[in-house]
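User: Okay, second chain of the day. Same drill as before: sequence in, structure tokens out.
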Amino acid sequence: MSACFFHRGMSLSWVGGAFAACGLIGFGCAATQLGATPAEIAQARSQSEQGARVFASQCAKCHGERGEGVGSAPAILGPGALPEYPRDSGSGSGPLTDPQLLQIEAQARPAGAAWRDPFRNAQDLYDFTRTHAAGKRAGDLSPADTWALVSFILAAQGASLPSGGVGPANATSMKIPRR
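Assistant: Same drill. Structure tokens below.
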């Protein structure tokens, strides 16, 4: 009988351990922050109030309040956002980095399908935003609002902005922080 109790005890210990492991895994997944943290948003807002207003009114609807990406809209703030190379939309294996694969994908994409050049600096981000952001509304933003938005996004990603923010005079020297 004690062997039977020991066996049940072992089973209960194993089951309890499994529940504990699942709880830790679930807790770890729940703790993963998508998008920018509240502190990063506050920092970005302090560096570009106009950009924060543009983001809240024009971008957050699709990309989320923290830029975490909602539905099919990609994350534009936080870890993994703004990859240098376009994300591979097919296999889920991450961004494309092979120049030949980039060329093949560029030649194979349907007319009008979203595409972009690599994001290396603020000018690249500005150019993409002016032509692609918010679908057909991209051109509705003034150049000043777009530069303010780029400043806000870069600040949320951890960039140290020059006084006056990012603009045509300094955009190519402002590298996009990789997180």
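The two ends are 58 Å apart (CA to CA).

User: Thanks, on to the next one.
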